[in-house]
Design a protein that fits this description.
The complex is a heterodimer of chains A (about 350) and B (about 270). Chain A is built from 14 helices and two strands. Chain A is mainly α and about 350 residues long. Chain A has a single domain, classed as ABC transporter involved in vitamin B12 uptake, BtuC, CATH 1.10.3470.10. Chain A has a two-stranded antiparallel sheet. In chain A, a hairpin with a 2-residue loop joins strand 1 and strand 2. In chain A, helix 5 crosses helix 11. Chain B has two domains: about 160 residues, P-loop containing nucleotide triphosphate hydrolases (Rossmann fold, 3-Layer(aba) Sandwich), CATH 3.40.50; about 70 residues, no CATH class. Helix content of chain B is about 30%, strand content about 25%. In chain B, a hairpin with a 2-residue loop joins strand 1 and strand 2. The longest helix of chain B is centred in the last third of the chain and has 16 residues. The chains are: A mainly alpha (about 350), B alpha/beta (about 270). The interface between A and B is medium-sized, with 26 and 33 residues.
């Protein structure tokens, strides 16, 4: 019964993802019908069809919409799966890369790089420039991840309260650092800094799709293999080890892959919070906490959430465009509050 | 078999294990007894590889503990810990199935499902199968973990060597019926040619179920042997700093321990 249910959910979510991708490519100032989208894409791989479309439609799709939707898919799926894996690692459904400071560490590194090394970063253009900034934000993300993880360890156990408090401290420390650099920034730098802080897929290009491709695909393909180990982790680290899990390897892989995709996502789209929190939570509500299903469904639903959120960001207040980070936070914060209250109730009852 | 040879361990000036040696033969249930803070759980953590000893040897099937990877070990040795930290709403069935993780790759087989159903019955929790683990009482949760470790070391043997069950205070939170049921299960498991090591608090349970006993006091071994050999009024009174006496009730089949004398704490 459980399996039938998971199959139905998988099919539904996948169908919704395809719909949202078509909408994301078709909706906007220049409308493109689904058939026209198919025809344009088909032509690229050598099939000519009878469907009529204009040159403007073709260039809007190929140069703007398609890379943007792909970016949303890559970032959404990797943020969702790394959030789910983090929660498995920390044995707590409230862990999230943005909540424990990884994202703000990454954005601090990005802002510092913009203000301090704007010349050297922009001098390297195209893919290599994206890789350079990815590398810097990735280092910031990894560094914060390691600090928070170390601080929350005591006697072989991860102390969740310490982790969240350490995350708050790191968040505000990184915020202070970011503020300092913002203060020192000139007008041009300020504009790009605002972009990092609020998150936006507006800068999408084939260059940054290619740039983040390896960093976001790695978690999506590697983390599902850790599902059983992460289930065992929920019993505590030493129990996991007695169940044959190589606990050190799991910890390092999850922290590294999370820092990798968060760093890369922040580099091209700024801080997009709560995706890694909301998506796994919804999945747990529907199919339970088993990571074997969670890590399989999370990337699909994460992609769906971000493609839809970006569509909303682009189309809600045409011609103005909302930063996507605002939308995900507006969905995410209430869900997070609900979870905190619910956890409090669970503790009272049992 | 399990050989513990001259273990020394020092974590702080107040917690030192010195020169501890004992053997567990296939078929034996060995109990570790001692007062609070004597180092029982620490000793068990060293034997199961969670803590690294400063010197000494632990041999499992005649090979040193460091020879075994946790993956190998997990297929024939299970550890039931005192504390469990599960905070996610797994069902009882899912938690017990985790015990089978060392035995399958991605998906459980029908054999794994059969074993899980068997141990659920054995631990008396088959009715709780689909319940959310987080909504269970402490004693029920303890039985879920008993079932989980049993699932881990049940099923067909791949090699003809004993299996191992390590338990840290398995009777915690359990009522008297389930205390005896848990120890009976452990005893039966040992009887199938396996080794069981259990840290116990209840001296009466130890007298009833243990084949041999390790007596610990302040991290030092005060004795190792069969109940008849080492459980004397003098030895246990010394270990627990309390005048204790072993009685042989006329109707019972087992000895039992009681404090003797009045106002034992007045001059303590």
């Amino acid at each position: 019964m459980q399996l039938t249910r998971i199959r139905i959910i998988t099919i539904t979510v996948s169908a919704l993802l395809i719909l949202s991708v078509l909408a994301g490519m078709g909706m906007g100032a220049v409308a493109i019908a689904p058939l026209q989208i198919m025809a344009i894409l088909a032509k690229r791989i050598g099939f000519n069809s009878q469907v009529q479309y204009t040159d403007v439609q073709e260039s809007v799709l190929m140069a703007i919409r398609l890379p943007r939707v792909l970016l949303a898919v890559l970032i959404g799926s990797s943020l969702a799966i790394s959030g789910a894996a983090m929660q498995g690692l920390f044995r707590n459904p409230l862990a999230d890369p943005s909540l424990i400071g990884i994202s703000s560490g990454a954005s601090f590194a990005a802002v510092a790089a913009i203000v301090l090394g704007v010349n050297s970063v922009t001098a390297i253009s195209g893919i290599s420039g994206t890789y350079a900034l990815s590398f810097i934000t990735f280092s910031g993300a990894l560094f914060t991840a390691i600090i928070v993880y170390r601080l929350s360890q005591s006697g072989g156990k991860t102390i969740i309260a310490t982790m969240l408090l350490a995350g708050i401290a790191i968040n505000s420390l990184a915020g202070a650092g970011t503020g300092l650099f913002t203060y020192a920034a000139n007008d041009a730098q300020l504009r790009s800094i605002t972009f990092w802080m609020l998150g936006s897929l507006g800068g999408a290009s084939w260059g940054n799709v290619a740039g983040i491709l390896p960093f976001t695909l790695l978690p999506v393909f590697m983390l599902p293999a850790m599902a059983k180990s992460l289930n065992a982790f929920s019993l505590g680290e030493s129990n996991a080890s007695h169940l044959g899990t190589n606990t050190e390897r799991v910890k390092k892989t999850v922290v590294l892959l999370t820092a990798l995709c968060v760093g890369a996502s922040v580099a091209v789209a700024g801080v997009i919070g709560f995706v890694g929190l909301v998506v796994p939570h919804i999945i747990r509500l529907t199919v339970g906490p088993d990571n074997r299903y969670l890590l399989f469904l999370a990337p699909i639903m994460g992609a769906l959430l971000l493609v839809s959120a970006d569509l909303a960001a682009r189309t809600l207040f045409i011609p103005a465009e909302l930063p996507i980070g605002i939308i995900t936070s507006m969905i995410g914060a209430p869900v997070f509050l609900y979870m905190v209250v619910k956890e409090l109730k669970t503790q009272k009852n049992f | 078999m399990l050989n513990v040879q001259n273990i020394n361990f020092r974590i702080s000036p107040s917690l030192v294990l010195s020169d501890i040696s004992f053997d567990v033969n296939p078929g034996e249930l060995v109990a570790i007894l001692g007062a609070n803070g004597a180092g029982k759980s620490t000793l068990l953590k060293i034997i199961t590889g969670s803590l690294k000893m400063n010197s000494g040897n632990v041999l499992i099937n005649k090979l040193p503990l460091t020879f075994w990877s946790s993956k190998d070990l997990s297929t024939f040795a299970a550890v039931m810990q005192q504390q469990n930290q599960l905070q996610l709403p797994f069902s009882v069935y899912e938690v017990v199935m985790m015990g089978r993780y060392p035995h399958f790759n991605r998906k459980e087989t029908s054999e794994d499902e059969m074993i899980v159903n068997e141990v659920l019955v054995k631990a008396g929790i088959e009715k709780l199968k689909n319940r959310n683990y987080l909504t269970l009482s402490g004693g029920e949760q303890q039985r879920v973990h008993l079932a989980r470790v049993l699932a881990q070391i049940s099923g067909a043997k791949k090699i003809d060597e004993p299996r191992y069950l390590f338990m840290d205070e398995p009777s915690n939170n359990l009522d008297i019926r389930h205390q005896h049921s848990a120890l009976n299960i452990a005893k039966e498991f040992a009887g199938e040619g396996n080794c069981v090591v259990a840290v116990l608090h209840d001296l009466n349970l130890a007298l009833q179920y243990a084949d041999k006993i390790v007596l610990l006091k302040n991290g030092a071994m005060k004795g190792f042997g069969t109940c008849a050999d080492i459980m004397t009024d003098a030895s246990i009174s010394d270990v627990y700093d309390l005048p204790l006496s072993i009685f042989y009730p006329p109707m019972g089949r087992h000895a039992m321990v009681m404090p003797v004398g009045n106002n034992v704490f007045v001059n303590a």
